[in-house]
């Protein structure tokens, strides 16, 4: 068994309204920050797991994303897996 760390990023689909992102985009100028065209706010998850191989870890992370962590109707996800 080997321990792996998965960095998972989940964001709302571009086609959907992101009210939190819009609020940040509309108000960031008040901080003197210019040039911001769009903001998307999502989730970042660090998941640690033991698996026989990197491909086995990827399979488990994919299952977790599809069935628990992300709502595929409203969100997209991607991840990176590193051996520890």
- CATH architecture name: 2-Layer Sandwich
Biggest beta-sheet profile:
3 strands, antiparallel
- Which superfamily, in CATH terms, is the homologous superfamily? Phosphoribosylformylglycinamidine synthase subunit PurS
- Helix share, percent: 25-40%
Provide the succession of SSEs.
Answer: EHEHE
Form type: elongated
How confident is the prediction overall: mean pLDDT?
96
CATH top level?
A: Alpha Beta
Q: Strand content of the residues, in percent?
A: 25-35%
CATH topology: Mth169, Chain: A
Distance between the termini: 11 Å
Low-pLDDT stretches are none
Q: Structural class, from secondary structure content?
A: alpha+beta
Beta-strand segment tally: 3
- Count of the domains: 1
Q: How would you characterize this protein structure?
A:
The chain is α+β, with helices and mostly antiparallel strands and 84 residues long. The protein has one domain: 2-Layer Sandwich (Mth169, Chain: A), CATH 3.30.1280. Helices cover 30% and strands 35% of the residues. It is built from two helices and three strands, in the order E-H-E-H-E. The chain has a three-stranded antiparallel sheet, with helices on one face. The chain starts with a strand and ends with a strand.
Summarize the structure.
The chain is of the alpha+beta class.
Helix/strand layout:
Layout: E1 2-12, H1 19-27, E2 43-51, H2 54-69, E3 75-83
Antiparallel strand pairs: 1-2, 1-3
Write out key terms for the chains shown:
alpha+beta, 84 residues, 2 helices, 30% helix, 3 strands, elongated, 35% strand, three-stranded antiparallel sheet, Mth169, Chain: A
């Amino acid at each position: 068994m080997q321990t792996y760390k998965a960095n998972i990023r989940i964001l709302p689909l571009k086609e959907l309204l992101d009210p939190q992102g819009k609020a940040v985009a509309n108000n960031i100028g008040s901080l003197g920050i210019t040039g911001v065209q769009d903001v998307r706010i999502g989730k970042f998850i660090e998941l640690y797991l033991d698996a026989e191989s990197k491909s086995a870890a990827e399979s488990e992370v994919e299952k977790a994303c599809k069935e628990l962590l992300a709502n595929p109707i409203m969100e997209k996800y991607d991840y990176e897996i590193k051996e520890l």
